[in-house]
Amino acid sequence: MNNFNVPTRETVSPANQAIFDNLQKGLGFVPNLYAVMAYSETALGKYLAFQSVKTTLTNKEKEAVNLVVSQINHCRYCQSAHTLLGKMNGFTEEETIDLRNGHSNDPKLNALVKLAKAITENKGVVAEPILNAFFNAGYNKAVLVDVVMLVGDKIIMNYLHNLTEVAIDFPLAQPLS
Q1: Are 144 and 58 in contact (CB under 8 A)?
Q2: Between 3.40.50.150, 3.40.50.10490, 2.30.29.170, 1.20.1290.10, what CATH number should domain 59-164 receive?
Q3: Which segments of the chain are extended strands (E)?
Q4: What is the pLDDT of residue 3?
Q5: Model pLDDT, residue 4
Q6: Among residues 22, 43, 98, 169, which is most buried (max CB within 10 A)?
């Protein structure tokens, strides 16, 4: 099914070449899924701007949401990328697996992950007990909005990889049993 080659710097527009250069400087490489976005003249720049906006979530909370959403959407690329990023933000391998399975031993993080899982699985329709647990864990309405934004961010990339099947250029996440 995969008929998407990963664009190289030489094959993308000048605007995307500049973004590739910045990614190369910042990350040391251009992730394949970002490169695929450069098929569009504007998608990569818009996505990176969207992804980098200020949020009420900590980096660790963002990675928890990214992991569970990517698992639900069967995106091995994002599972792999966010397992690595999760570890860089303090999670153990076991914790990343727990998060992908939709739970955490940390009660506050557990409420967040259960909410993100429910939002993703049910297209934004969340049972009242899950929403109440989220608020009772200390989160507020601003965080709820940011969680929805982050779920949307991750769905974009999950769907893009599921459609393009470009090679995963991160250490592969363990499959769940």
Answers
A1: no
A2: 1.20.1290.10
A3: none
A4: 78
A5: 87
A6: 98
